[in-house]
Description:
The chain is an alpha/beta fold. It has helices at about 10-20, 100-115, 140-150, 165-170, 185-190, 210-220, 245-255, 265-270, 275-285, 310-325; strands at about 1-5, 25, 30-35, 50-55, 75, 80, 90-95, 120, 155-160, 175, 200, 225-230, 260, 290, 330.
Amino acid sequence: MIIHTKPNASTTDVNRLAKATKSILFHNGEHNVLVTPSKMQSPPDGFSEIIDQAWPMTSDLQLGSKSYKDQTREIKLGDISIGGNTKNTIVIAGPCSVESESQIRESAVFMQKMGITALRGGCYKPRTSPYSFQGMGLDGLKLLSKMREEFGFTIVSEVRDATHVHHVIEHADVIQVGAKSMYDHGILRACAKTQKPVLIKRGFGTTLQEFAQAAEFVLSGGNPNVMLCERGIRTFETKTRFTLDLCGVAWLKENTNLPIILDPSHALGYRYGISDLSKACVAMGIDGLLVEVHPNPAEAKSDAAQQLYHEQFSKLLNDIRPVADAVCRKIV
């Protein structure tokens, strides 16, 4: 259950209510917000005078639930807003990994030419093999910061584990929590202490309920700026890397109030079908699209097979715009 207390409620009374309900307590700028375990369906006796409104919940998907806020949250990514009433679909693009200054600069020049405002690049790579390229780390983040200063991009970069989460929070404008890290409470709680947007990717073996509840760790810490990213789940199929769960996206749109981003690059794992998948994603009226693009994918140090060449990405942008128009969305 979620409880809003009245503005004139004393701190003592609010704390007593929080203790009585075993609540997480934070202030959202207008109200004290208490989030109880979902099994509690009504406030305890004796507190009615300080309670403004209460929402019983059927599960621990609470702050991110449409039952609490029926409109998608509006989140600012630099000068662009998504969610709310905006009808914007932002395209976030760039290489899987920051590999060198020349590589990320070439990417930045091209993305600016394409009208892209959000540049992605991984610096701490959660690779399956310890022998694969692990990313440039802090040096890579500094290069991304340099690209922001020179080109004005909103920078999106991934946290691999809690040891460097504060470096990513410092240098990135959007903190991406990867599929292999979405259960890391150290990362989630650190993201809850900032107001920067947080992009949580669905784990490839994660249920929709678990995915949505990961966002609750950030929301309940006082950061309302959370987005969910579907990037494919592991199924019996072996011909593609993962299976992009568009049914799951429909469920998330129906049941959560969080902006939805889709990542077709990681789902398919091969560049040949990324444009077609992107059209399907945009047709669902999503809030953002995450696409991996590299100046020369054949030489990429990570995920080479799924990264688009520049000319392929240019074509993708042309392909998705009429689809966005058809569903009354705007590609930004």
